[in-house]
Amino acid sequence: MVNKKTFKKYKTYLNDELEAASIYNILAKSYINPDKASIFIKLAESEIRHASHWAKLIGLESSKLNYNKNTIRTIYVKLVCRLFGPDKILPWLARIESAGVRVYDNDPEAKFLSSEERNHAKTILQMASTISPKSHQSNESTIKSVAQGNVRAAILGINDGLISNFCLIMGFAGGATATGNPEYILLAGFAGLLAGSLSMGAGEYVSVKAQVDLYEYQISKETEELILWPEEELEELKLIYMAKGLSEDLATETAQSIIDNPESAIDTMVREELGLNPDDLGSPITASITSILSFTMGAIVPIIPFMLTSGNLALILTSLLSIFSLMIIGGITALNTGVNLLKGSMRMLFFGSAAALITYISGTLIGVGLS
Fold first, then answer.
1. CB within 8 Å of 234: residues ≥ 6 apart
2. Contacts of residue 154, Cβ cutoff 8 Å, sequence gap at least 6
3. 182 vs 176: CA distance, rounded Å
4. What is the mean pLDDT of residues 326-336?
5. pLDDT in tens, 269-309
6. Distance between CA atoms of 122 and 140, rounded to whole angstroms?
7. Contact 355, 171 (CB under 8 A)
8. Would you give the distance in Å from CA 346 to the centre of its chain?
9. Which end of the chain is more exposed for a tag (fewer CB within 10 A), N or C?
10. Which of 146, 164, 160 is nearest to 329 (CA)?
C-alpha cells in the first residue's frame, strides 16, 4: 500500500485522467465527422487505461470509476462545443495537453504513460493547426499566398464597412423620415464607422495573435522535444519520409542528417510534422490596422453625401453611391474567385440593397411608433 503523500499524488493523477477521458468523450460526441470522432474515442480509451492504472495503485476498482465527470473544464468544453462547435476548443485543449506532458516523466510508475501522453498532445496540436502542409513552398508562392490573403481580407473589410454603415444610415434615414429629425443621420454614420472599425481591428488582432501564439507554442514545444527526445523525433521524421515514398534506409539516412543539424532539424520538424510554415505567421498589429483601414474605406462611402448635403438629395446620393460601390466590390470579388463578373456584381448588389431596404423600412416603422 502506498503512503499518504503518494496516495494523494496518484489520486490527483487519477482525477486528471478521468477528466481527460470525459473531455475526449464530449468531443467524440460533438464531432459529426466520423474520422475526427474516432480519434477522440481512441484518446478517451487511452485515458481510461491510464485512470485504471492509477486506480489499481491506490486500491480502487476500475469498474466503479466515473468516466463522465462534471468539472469546470468539462462544463466549459460542453458549452463551447454546443455554442461554437468542437473545433473552437482545440487550441485551448492543445495548450492544456502540452502543459501536462512532463507530469509523468519522473514517476517510475508512469514510464509507459509518458510517451502516450506526449502522443496525445501531438495529436491535439496537429488537429488544432488549421494550416495545411506547405513543407516545400517556395518564397514566391509564399509571397503570392500572403498577398492574396491580404487582398481578400481588405475586400471583406471594405464590404463589411460599406454594407453595415449603409444599412445603419438607411435605418436612421427611415426613422428620420417619420420623426422629422434628420440631424442624427450623420452622427449615426460616424458612430457606426468608428464602432465598426475599432471592433474589426480588435477582433482581428485577438484572432491573429491567438493563432500566432499557438504556432509559436507548437514550435517551442517541438524544439524542446527535439532536445529531450531526439530518438523519438528521428523515428517520427523517418516515418514521414517513408510515407512520402523513400525506402527505410534512405529515410533513416535523410532523417539522421537533418537531426544532426539542430537548426535545420527544428525547421524541418515544424514543417514536416506539424505542417507549419513559420514564414506564414502574420503580424497581429498589421492585421488589425488593415482591418480598421479597410472597414473605414467602406464605411465612409455612405457618409460622404450627408457631409456635403442633406435631406432627400443626400439620401438618394448615398443610395446611388453605395449601390455603385457594392457592384464594384462584387466585381472585384468575382475576379478573385473566378466567378462571372456580372453575376458577382449583381449578387453583391442584391444582398446589399436588400439589407439596406429592410433596415430603412424597419427604421421607418420604429420612427412612426416613436413619433
1. 255, 256, 259
2. 290, 294
3. 5
4. 82
5. 777 666 666 666 678 888 889 889 999 999 999 999 988 88
6. 30
7. no
8. 31
9. N
10. 160
Q: What are the start-end ranges of the H helices in 229-261? A: 230-243, 248-259
Look up cell 492509477; give the residue: 54
In angstroms, how far is the first alpha carbon of the chain from the final one?
81
C-alpha 29/C-alpha 18 separation (Å) is: 17
> What are the residues whose beta carbons fall under 8 Å from the beta carbon of 64, sequence distance 6 or more?
none
Give yes or no for a contact between 185 and 172, defined as CB atoms under 8 angstroms apart. Answer: yes
* 220-260 per-position pLDDT tens digit: 777 777 776 777 777 777 777 776 777 888 888 888 888 88
Integer angstrom CA distances of residue 155 from 158, 191, 295: 5, 22, 9
Element (H, E) at 337: helix 311-337
> Which 8-state DSSP code applies to residue 64?
G
Helical spans, DSSP H, in 58-183: 72-84, 90-99, 111-128, 139-179
Rounded to the nearest 10 degrees, the angle between the axes of helix 111-128 and helix 90-99 is: 150
Helix, strand, or coil here: 65?
A: coil
Please identify which residue in the block is written with the cell numbers 457631409: 307
- Kindly state the average pLDDT of the residues 146-175: 78
pLDDT tens digits for range 20-42: 999 999 999 999 888 888 888 98
Distance, C-alpha 71 to centroid of its chain: 25
Task: Calculate the CA 265 to chain-centre distance.
Answer: 27
What distance separates the 2 farthest-apart alpha carbons in the chain? Answer: 88
- Answering whether pTM is above 0.85, one says no
Residue 279: closest CA among 81, 138, 113, 126: 138
The H or E element spanning position 336 is helix 311-337
C-alpha Rg value of the chain to the nearest Å: 28
C-beta atoms surrounding 231 within 10 Å: 8
Alpha carbon distance 326, 356 (integer Å):
12
Residue that has been written with the C-alpha cell 492585421 in this structure: 287
